[in-house]
Specification:
Layout: H1 2-11, E1 16-20, H2 30-39, E2 43-48, H3 53-63, E3 85-87
Helix pairs in contact: 2-3
Length: about 90
């Protein structure tokens, strides 16, 4: 899955949103989401649609604090890090 998103990222110049909807049958663990945030440049948003979304977001931030800063910790444009926008309500 990481390779797929890496190739997609290389081919486009717009942000990528990854939707985590366990009902689809594909489980996206916090570890996988953190890896995508760290390794795939265009991954900019996650939409978490599951029970326990807050716990999943906390774990995601813990695993990748530079890329997955909560909204209040976003780095301004041109800053040293690439903050990832994450919420359980829709990736803003």
């Amino acid at each position: 899955m990481v390779e797929y998103f890496a190739r997609l990222s290389d081919a486009i110049s717009i942000p990528i949103m990854i939707q985590d909807a366990p009902v689809s049958g594909t489980v996206l663990t916090p570890a996988l989401l953190a890896r995508l945030a760290r390794e795939v440049e265009q991954v900019a948003y996650f939409k978490i649609e599951s029970t326990g979304a807050a716990a999943k977001l906390r774990e995601l931030i813990r695993l990748s604090p530079t890329q997955c800063a909560p909204p209040s910790m976003h780095t301004p444009p041109g800053g040293a890090t690439r903050p990832l926008r994450t919420t359980s309500a829709g990736c803003r």
